[in-house]
Design brief:
Blueprint: E1 12-16, E2 19-26, E3 29-36, H1 42-45, H2 47-50, E4 59-65, E5 67-72, E6 77-80, E7 85-88, E8 92-97, E9 102-106
Antiparallel strand pairs: 1-2, 2-3, 3-9, 4-7, 4-9, 5-6, 5-8
InterPro entries: RmlC-like_jellyroll (IPR014710), RmlC_Cupin_sf (IPR011051)
Protein name: Cupin domain-containing protein
Amino acid sequence: MIEIKSIEKPDDRRDFLRGHLEIVQLTGLVFAKATFEPGWRWTESIKDIAGTDLCEVHHNGYIAEGRLRIRTQDGAEQEVGPGDAFVVTPGHDAWVVGDEPCVAFDFAGGMDDYAKATGS
């Protein structure tokens, strides 16, 4: 089997405060491209949509542009930037660092519910 989809023609696009998410669904993989504008923070832009205090999505990601700071519920904190691959478990906040947008790709599969209102 070979299955190919372009992220430039996503199956779904979700807009939220200071950013958006583009998703393609493939067999066994939900692939997402997130664009977070300067000033974006999960607890300010997604929290009310998700209905949780922190992001409860597991992320396997890659940063193509910009920088994100990530803080877990236990207080661990790291910054990721261009060229960084990362894994973040559920229970975290994140925000854009600096004055340029952050573009992140996510391969974890949990993005099918990210920034999607409960019951949608």
